[in-house]
Amino acid sequence: MAQLLRLDASPRRSRSHTRTLAGEFVARWSASRPDDTVIRRDLGHEPPPHVTEEWIAAAFTTPGERTPRMREALAYSDQVVDELFAADVLVLAVPMYNFGVPAMLKAYIDQIVRVGRTFAFDPEAAAPYTPLVSGKRAFVIVGTGDAGYEMGGPLASMNHVEPYLRTALGFLGIDDVEFVYTGNDEFGGERLQRSLERARNRVAELTTERKAVDVAG
């Protein structure tokens, strides 16, 4: 039995293509694996707090020396880090905003990249940073206004969503990451519908592939 952690970063509701596709992904997954559980965190509607000076001081203080106020400053971070460790699979629904991730998702990443919790730091070591999160797979559904931002596409050089998330997740130890793209939201019409259909087909492939892997294993 596995646990999925679904993260929605769009402030849109029914008009969000990434929310819709993430919902379809989870529905297909759950249909083939009814014993799995799903945890959902809606970053778009319940934005994480930003990192503050108090948060930084608390994070870099050893747990035994933290004051009650420091523990309070880290309460949200502790919660989302615990969710991350409990999950086997991450499903991220991410609209591209001005070539990068929404501020809500960036704030979430800042809350889960924690020294001593999700990565270790030894300034004397040859490799000072050690990932502490392992054995997880991530699926990222990206929605864009234009099309061609995927790696190898004509607008790939302007895509700072995929490189950033691969770097941030990889830094923690999550290297198995698949991206699904849907574009043409600003154009609408047939172009948008064709893009959504390609994304749905990719979602179907990935959920079928995962099922096959489970059966083979």
As a percent range, the share of helical residues equals 40-55%
Our measurement of the CA-to-CA distance between the termini, rounded to an integer number of angstroms, reads 13 Å
CATH class: Alpha Beta
Number of strands: 7
Strand/helix succession: EHEHHHEHEEEHEH
What does it look like?
The structure is a single chain. With 217 residues, the protein is an alpha/beta fold. The chain has a single domain, classed as Rossmann fold (3-Layer(aba) Sandwich), CATH 3.40.50.360. It has seven helices and seven strands. The strands form two sheets. The protein has a five-stranded parallel sheet with strand order 2-1-3-6-7, with helices on both faces. Strands 4-5 form a two-stranded antiparallel sheet. Helix 1 runs parallel beside helix 7. The longest helix is centred in the last third of the chain and has 28 residues. It is globular and about 60 Å long. It holds the Pfam family Flavodoxin_2. Keywords: Coiled coil, Flavoprotein, FMN, NAD, Oxidoreductase. Quinone reductase that provides resistance to thiol-specific stress caused by electrophilic quinones. Also exhibits azoreductase activity. Catalyzes the reductive cleavage of the azo bond in aromatic azo compounds to the corresponding amines. Its EC number is 1.6.5.-, 1.7.1.17.
